[in-house]
Design a protein that fits this description.
With 99 residues, the chain is mainly alpha-helical. The protein has one domain (20-98). 62% of the residues lie in helices and 0% in strands. It has 5 helices and no strands. Helix 1 packs antiparallel against helix 2 and helix 1 (20-26) runs parallel beside helix 3 (47-62). The radius of gyration is 16 Å and the shape is globular. The termini are far apart.
Length: 99
Amino acid sequence: MRAQPVHYGDSGAPSIPRTQNGVAEALPPADRMEFYREMGQADEHELLGVLRRWWMRAMMYADPLAEPVRTAIETGTAPGRPAAAVLHEAQAAREADSR
């Protein structure tokens, strides 16, 4: 018997384009205004980080999580590591590999 491949990302949640319009369309109206405000205030070095952070939030909203799980994630009480820490480590690893 052979091991079966595991397919990640097939949670049934819709795929959201990593574009300003794609993220904005996926957000609830109240968050959409905050997203546009942050995008408008970001300089050229911050834009990608703002877009990435809001894309992750839009993906979370699109995922059919139970409300207690969603609340725990939003308040920072869910188990695991913060996405910001993981992204920071990935960026540091890419920079180390490029040297």
